[in-house]
Amino acid sequence: MAETSTTTTTIPPPLPLKIIAGADSFGCSLKDALVSHLRSLNIEVEDLGTSSYYSIAAEVGRRVSAASSTPSSPTPDIRGLVACGTGVGVSIFANKFPGVFAATCLSTADAANSRSINNSNVLAVSGMATSPDSAIEILDTWLKTPFKSPCPASNSTPWSAELESFLDNSLSEMPVIGAKDSNPKQQEDESGNTSACALCCLVKNRKLDPIEIIPGGAMKIVRESPTSAIVSFKAGSVEPAHHHTFGHDLVVLKGSKRVWNLSKKAKYDLGVDDYLFTPAGDVHRVKYFEDTEFFIKWEGKWDIFFDEEMEVAKFEIEKEAEDGFELIK
């Protein structure tokens, strides 16, 4: 009897999975429950903790984006998990980064559809609307559903060849949408007019009031509590060391500055589009190298407490080479 030879096709195992997680205060409990579940499945998790919904989602989105833009064979399949009160805000800000496809999922059907149709790589969940048990079911469905697999949107049957082709093409077409507008500083439209980000337009149309206690500064509060404001300083201006009751996020819209965080023995050089979070109570000093504008949001109502006189601040800045601070760029 002749022997029959068979050829076995070995399917390579999927890349190991890593999840980058973060939440705001409304989603932190749910995020913690999901992180524990992921670790029980032996999935690597990098937990970024808790911050404002836009800050934490942006950081998760930034890291997932960086992983998707520089793939290599040993690199794990890196996805994100974000949570806030509704799951909507974190999804919006994670999606600011190229290659990120964040989906807010309130049901297992949402999770399956987002993976099958959109190849979602960031799961956003609601801390107010979803129980831990339901969220675990949503997460498990999201983890186990491959791209183009049968899902509720396909009536749980395979996609037609025509729709499969559409989905395949979407993987290359979606990431380039908006690529020509990727320079956030300024773009020209077909009529020759210039367009800028929403914050820049906000600055353009508002008159800033002088900050009497800090020469060279001006500010326009756009929301009282938690306080949000547009702030400008003239080149050469100095903010003496000070602290606030509440932490604050800021984004530089124009110009450049250096921030010394005296509490952390660190200094930061910031230019256009750079972001910095300063925790509540951290003492910090600032020098402006050119006319500078930035958007700032405190976690509560704005206040300021000075920790040194202006002349002391200028003296310390002049001898900064001796300060021993770590420069973080």
Automatic annotation (TrEMBL):
Pfam families xref list: LacAB_rpiB
InterPro entries: DRT102, RmlC-like_jellyroll, RmlC_Cupin_sf, RpiB_LacA_LacB, RpiB_LacA_LacB_sf
Domain of life: Eukaryota
UniProt GO molecular function: isomerase activity
One record GO biological process: carbohydrate metabolic process
Protein name: DNA-damage-repair/toleration protein DRT102
Source organism (scientific name): Dovyalis caffra
Lineage: Eukaryota, Viridiplantae, Streptophyta, Embryophyta, Tracheophyta
